[in-house]
Amino acid sequence: MLRTMVGGLELQSPLLTGSGTFGHDPAALAFLNPGDLGALVLKTVTPEPRFGNPSQRLAEFPGGVINAIGLENKGLVYWRDHVAPQLKEVPLPVVANAGGHSATDYVAMVEAFDAMDGVAAIELNLSCPNVKGGTQFSTDAQALEDVVRACRKTTDKPLWVKLSPNVTSIVPFAKAAEASGANALTVCNTLVGLLVDWRKRKPVIANGTGGLSGPAAKPVAMRLVWEASSAVKIPVIASGGASTAEDVLEFIVSGASAVQIGTASFRRPNAISEIATDLRHILGQEKLTLDELRGTLIWPH
Ligand SMILES: Cc1cc2nc3c(=O)[nH]c(=O)nc-3n(C[C@H](O)[C@H](O)[C@H](O)COP(=O)(O)O)c2cc1C
Fold first, then answer.
1. Tens digit of pLDDT for each residue in 235-251?
2. Could you tell me the pTM of the whole model?
């Protein structure tokens, strides 16, 4: 009932993890029932190890969380030797997520992921707001087109491009990714936000600003999914604030092919299974399929 085709992958469910918000180990997957998760999208890996930003790096507010982790990771060599071998045991498609400072970095990551059996698709994180230079490719459509084209030449695996919400219009970026051979778009990364501790006269997050995610991001992500999916033919994967089956159906009607669940899994590690159960129930009750609903938003004129 939930089977979905997304950017070159056939998935048993349209629900995916959001990069950086879920583990890849059996302990993390044990929170979910088999059949509920479509693909495991993993945290960004960069060519070199990164320590990330100083703490405090994560803070809650009533609408979600603000984070400035800063792409902490142990780097490609560690990942290749210690993480990739475990991925062959994961009974689902695994989507590896690539980060970097330059086009050369992205190409190197894609080349490495291309050679790993356990990686079914590659998501390019061109849009991290929490590292210096993290959005250079997602705020300049020509730079985005060039880097995606270079990555496209490096792999035949499905290539997904994760776009930034922090732009005046997402349409030129969606079109540039499609023109350079992306198989799908992930819309979108976190929104730049600021939490203030007025008593200390300081930002709560040590980095100053951070990336906003969770329920408060949903209306912005919804608009961007609608705008991007109206502008391109490749599938759009929604990311931003989904925490219930109703949220997922809103994204599907707005044009999404699949939906990543991120911050919701922090509060409820089994959120994806709860959402999948509710989705099956609602679709059964309404006698509707995801394909019948996808992109059916009626725009007022
Ligand atoms: C703590 C945290 C870490 C994240 N790390 C990454 C990351 O490494 N790479 C990436 O592409 N997105 C990262 N994201 C963004 C999420 O994948 C997702 O796009 C965003 O949180 C919006 O979805 P949500 O509201 O469902 O969380 C991170 C988000 C959070 C909250």
1. 999 999 999 999 999 99
2. 0.98
